[in-house]
Design brief:
The structure holds 2 protein chains of 2 kinds. Chain A is of the alpha+beta class. Chain A has 4 domains: 2-172, 2-Layer Sandwich (Heat Shock Protein 90); 195-257, Helicase, Ruva Protein, domain 3; 274-413, Ribosomal Protein S5, domain 2 (2-Layer Sandwich), CATH 3.30.230.10; 452-554, Immunoglobulin-like. In chain A, 29% of the residues lie in helices and 30% in strands. Chain A has helices at residues 2-11, 45-50, 72-83, 142-155, 195-203, 209-216, 222-232, 245-257, 274-284, 342-349, 392-444, 452-458, and strands spanning 16-25, 28-35, 87-92, 99-107, 112-121, 128-136, 160-165, 168-172, 289-294, 298-300, 303-313, 324-329, 332-334, 359-360, 362-363, 367-375, 462-469, 472-479, 485-493, 498-501, 506-510, 513-522, 527-533, 539-543, 550-554. The radius of gyration of chain A is 37 Å and the shape is elongated. Chain B has helices spanning 3-26, 66-88, 94-100, 112-126, 197-205, 208-212, 225-238, 250-260, 270-273, 285-290, 300-310, 318-330, 346-359, and strands at 32-36, 43-46, 51-54, 58-62, 92-93, 135-136, 143-145, 148-154, 157-162, 172-173, 181-186, 190-194, 214-218, 242-245, 279-282, 296-297, 332-333. Chain B contains 13 helices and 17 strands. Chain B is an alpha/beta fold. In chain B, a hairpin with a 4-residue loop joins β2 and β3. Helix content of chain B is 43%, strand content 19%. Chain B has a 6-stranded mixed sheet with strand order 10-7-13-12-14-15, with helices on both faces. Classes of the chains: A alpha+beta, B alpha/beta. At the A-B interface, α11 and α12 of A face α1 and α2 of B.
Chain lengths: 557, 362
Amino acid sequence: MDNALDACEEAGALPDLFIGIRKVSDEVYRITVEDNGPGIVPAQVPFVFGKLLYGSRFHQVRQSRGQQGIGISAAVLYAQLTTGLPTVVISRTDPKEKAHRFELAIHVESNEPHIVSKKEIEWDRTHGTRVEIELRTSLTAKKRLVEYLKYTSVVNPHARIQVDIDGDKMTFERVSAEPIACPQAIQPHPHGIELGALKRMAEASPAPLSEFLVSSFSRVGKKAAADIGAAAGLEPGRKVKALSAEELKQLHAAFQSVDVPAPPAAQCLSPIGEELIRQGLDKEFQLDFVKARTRPPSVYGGHPFVVEAAIGYGGRLPSDDRALILRFANRVPLMYQPGACAITQSVSDVNWKQYGITQQGLPMGPLLILVHVASTNVPFTSESKDAVAAIPEISKEIDLVLKDLGRELKQFLSRRDRRKAQDDRARAICSIIPEIAVKVAEIVEKPPLDVSPIEGKIMRRVVAKKWTADGMVHLSLRNYTEKEVTLTLYDLSPDEGTGVKPKPAYTDRAGDDFTRVWQVTLPPDEGWDATYRGRGGGRIDLRGVEDSQKVVVDLDV
Amino acid sequence: MSKQELDTRAAKSLLAIADTWYQQMKGGEIPYITLPTRTKQNIAFDDQTEVWKYGDRESMRSASTEKSAVHLLKMAYVIGFIRQQLREDRSSTLRELYYITEGWRRAKFETQDESNYLVEDLEILADIPREGFHLRPEEDGAGVFGPLRIRESTRRGDRVLHCRDDVGESGYQIPNNLETVELMDHSAKFVVAIETGGMYARLIENGFDEDYHAILVHLKGQPARSTRRLLHRLNEQFHLPVVVFTDGDPWSYRIYASVAYGAIKSAHMSELLATPEAKFLGVQPTDIRVYNLPSDKLTEKDVEALKAELTDPRFATEYWKREINLQLEMQLKSEQQAFAARGLDFVTKEYLPTRLADMGVL
C-alpha cells in the first residue's frame, strides 16, 4: 500500500487503490493490492518483487513512505516460505502497452528472481500495478488493520481506498482532488550521511576530493570543502575513488566537525498541510472542533524534517477515555509501541490542564491528537519502525505545535462554555419560569401568567407591552437587543385615546376602532412609554424588527 | 403567639412570597428572592439584643440560570405543600418532606440537606419559624425535670403536667414544636442546662432539683432548637437565671455560646432561641486545677479551637480570656463526670453549691 501510494505520487496521479483480503483455506489468505500508478516496466518487475533489498529509492534523500514496511520482496519471500506459492504481479505502464502478468518467486540461495511464468494479458486498467500474494496468516488483528487503513486515509485525503476484507467491504473516499506534489530528492547533507552511503558515492565518483564534496553534497561550498579536507587530513586533489576505508572513515568524521548550512527542506519534504489534515479528520471522525498546524521545516543531524499536528475535540469521541493519539511518520500510521514513541512522550509532557483538559499522564476526554513527522530520514527507536526516537530537535517541534493547538482548543472550549451558559439561561427562561408561573398562580389563586416578556428580556429582544390599570392604558417598548432599532407601533382599540402622551405620529378611525401609530427610535437598553385614558382591549403590533427579535404582549388578555 | 395566630401568620407570609413572584413575573421581571448571605462571614453580634444575627450582606437569587430557577421552582412547590398542610392542619417531618418531593419531577430534592436548607431559607423569607409551617425535625427533643408545670396542647387534647411529679425519672420530653407548650407556673430559683445525659441523671438521682429548687434541662450535646427555645422562654417568662453546665473543653464552650448567643445555621431566629443572660457554670479550666480533676491532654484540634475562640468576639471577655489561656497553659481538659473521682455526691454537695454561690445564683 505504501509502495502504491508512493508510486501514484511520483506519477502525479490521484491514487485509486484496492485492497483485498480473501480467505483461501484454513490459515491461508490471498492479499491483493492494486493501484492506478504509473506501472512498472516488464524488465524491472522481476527485480522489484523477486530480489530482496532491491529498493529503487534506497539512497534518495527525500521524504518517502517506503521506509516503514518490510519491503515487498520480503512479503513475496514470506508467501513462498509459508505456502510455497509464487506471487502474481500484473502491471501496465501505458494504455498503448499491454499488461504483463508474472508469477514470481525468489531463489533463496542467490537472492535472484525466479520467473515461474510470464505472459501478456488484457487488463481493464490503463496503467497501474496489481499484486496478489497468498500467505499463511490470520485475521485476528482485523481491528488494527481497519484502523491502519482509516488512519492512512486521514493523512492521504487525496486517495480513494476500496477495501474488501473477506467480504467485509468498505470505501475510504477521497476528499481532496489535489495530487500531492512529489517531494524532490536533494543531495545528501554531510551532517546526515551514513558511512556506507559515503562509500558507495565515493566508489562511483571519478572526481578529486574537493570537487566531489562541492558537487555531491548539499550546501557544501569551496570553503567548507577545504575545511573538511583539512579536518580529515586529506589532500584536496586526491581521487575519492582511491580513498582507503580508513581514510573514508576520517572523512566521515570530519563532516561532523565542520559547520555547513542546514540542508534545504522545502523541496524534499511534503507535509500534508493544515487544510488537508482537517479534511482528512473531518472525513473519518465526526468532530466538534478540528484545528491543524504545520510547523516550518527544521533540521536535525543534517536531515530536514517537518512536524505537523492536529487536535480534534468532541463529536463521537468517547468522553471518559484517554485521548486518541494518531502517530504518523511520512504519512504512514504508526500502530505499535506508543509508549516508546517521542510523539506520545511529547503529548504527555505538555501541561494540558492549562488548556482546560484533564490529564493523567496523557490527556483525557473526547480528544484526538494527530502528529505527523515527515523527514528524509525519520529516526526510529528500532528496526521495527514503530516509534519515533526522541531527538531533541523533533521533540521540541512537537511540543511547540501541540502548545499552539492547545491554545486554540482552549479558546474553543471557553467559547463553548459561554454558549452553554447562554443555553442554560434560555432553558431557565423558556422552560422553568413558565412552570414557576403556573405553580405560583395556583398558590395565590390568580389567573395564569404570561411570561413571554421575561423571555424577550433575556433572549435579547424588543418587547412591546400593553396593559390597563386604573382607567389608564399603558403602552411600553423596551429594546433588549444590542442594536438601535427604529420601530413602528400600531395600537388598534375601541378607546378614543383621550389625553394621549406622547402624541402619535398618526391617528385614524375606522368605524368604532381607533388606530394610533408611533414611530420610535430606541437605542439598546432604552425604553419608551405612552399612556391614554381608556379601558384597554384591541391589539398592538410592532414593525421594524424581525419576528425572531421581538415579543409583543397584551397583559390584559 | 397562639398556634392559630402562628398558622395564620405563616399562611399569610407564604402567600406574600408567592405573590411577590407573581407580581414580578406579571411585570415582566424574572422572579427572584433576596436573602441574607448565610455564611460565617455574615454573622454579626447585635449589641441591642446581645445575640448573633445575620449581617447586612444579602445575596439575590434570580431565576435567570437553570440552577436558580429550579431552586425557586422547588421553593414554590414547598410553599404550595405547606399551604395545603396548614389548611388541613396536618404536619410532617423534614424527612417526610424530602420523600414527598419524590413526585415533584423537576422540583424533586436531591438530598435531605437540600430540603432542610430550603426550609431554613423559607423561615428567613417568611420570618416564621418552621413550627409555623408544621414541619418538625426527626430527632426527639431532650428532657426537662424539676418544679415546673406546663400545659401541652396535643392532637388528643390538652395535657397539664408537672415536670417532676407527673413524669418518670427521665423527665418531661420537650416536643419539637414548643409553641404548643404553655409554661404555667414553677417553684424554681434557677435553671441548669446540662450537656451530658450522665450528669443530668446524676443530678436527678441526687435530688438536686428538690434540694436547690432547680429546673434541670438536658442539652444532649449541641442543643436542638426546641431545647434552646425552652431555655429562652424560662428565662424570659419567669426571669429565671440560666446556667450552663458542660464538659471542660473548647467544643463544650461552643455549646454554651450557641445557648447564649445563637448559631450560624439559625442566626435568623437568634432572638427567639438565644438566652443572652445564660451564664457558663463549668467545668472551668480553673476547676480542673482547683479540684485536681482527672483529665486528658488537649489534642492539636482542641488547641486550634481554643485559639480560634480567643479571637471570637463571643468570647472576648476578661473571664474567657483568663480561662482559655489557663487551659492552653495546662494543656488539659476534663469531662463533667470527672467529679465522680471524688465520690458520686461531690458534684451536688460540694461543687455546684460552691460554684452557684460564687456566681451569685444561690
